[in-house]
Amino acid sequence: MVLLVIVIVAVGYLVSLRIHPLRKCPTCKMTGRHFGGVFTNSFRPCRRCRGSGRRDRLGTQVFFGGTDHTGVYPKK
């Protein structure tokens, strides 16, 4: 019974990764901008997400090879 629950949870997680492969960038909090420390009104694109505000989920990178932070899986 426990094994069945583990399998259902694992399959649900993989389906979730295929449908929703992205998460918000932890650095810029999905704004795509990094604000300056001295001049707080100035900003530049976030270095981590390159201004998109999105990052691949860890499972997306591990199980499917990632989407290069676009949300579109490459053709095989």
Description of the structure:
The chain has 76 residues and is an alpha+beta fold. It is built from 2 helices and 4 strands; from the N terminus they run H-E-E-E-E-H. Helix content is 33%, strand content 16%. It has a two-stranded antiparallel sheet with strand order 1-4. The longest helix has 18 residues. It is elongated. The N and C termini lie far apart (36 Å).
Summarize, please.
The protein has helices spanning 2-19, 58-64; strands spanning 22-24, 33-35, 43-45, 54-56. With 76 residues, the protein is an alpha+beta fold.
Number of helices: 2
| Structural class by helix and strand composition | alpha+beta
CA-atom Rg in angstroms: 17 Å
Largest beta sheet: what is the strand line-up?
A: 1-4
Tally the structural domains: 1
Q: Low-confidence segments, ≥5 residues, pLDDT <50?
A: none
**Ends distance:** 36 Å
> Can you give the helix content as a percent range?
25-40%
Query: How many DSSP-defined strands?
Result: 4
Kindly report the average pLDDT value: 90
Taking the sheet with the most strands, its summary is: 2 strands, antiparallel
Query: What share of the residues does DSSP label as strand, in percent?
Result: 15-25%
Shape: elongated
Order of helices and strands: HEEEEH
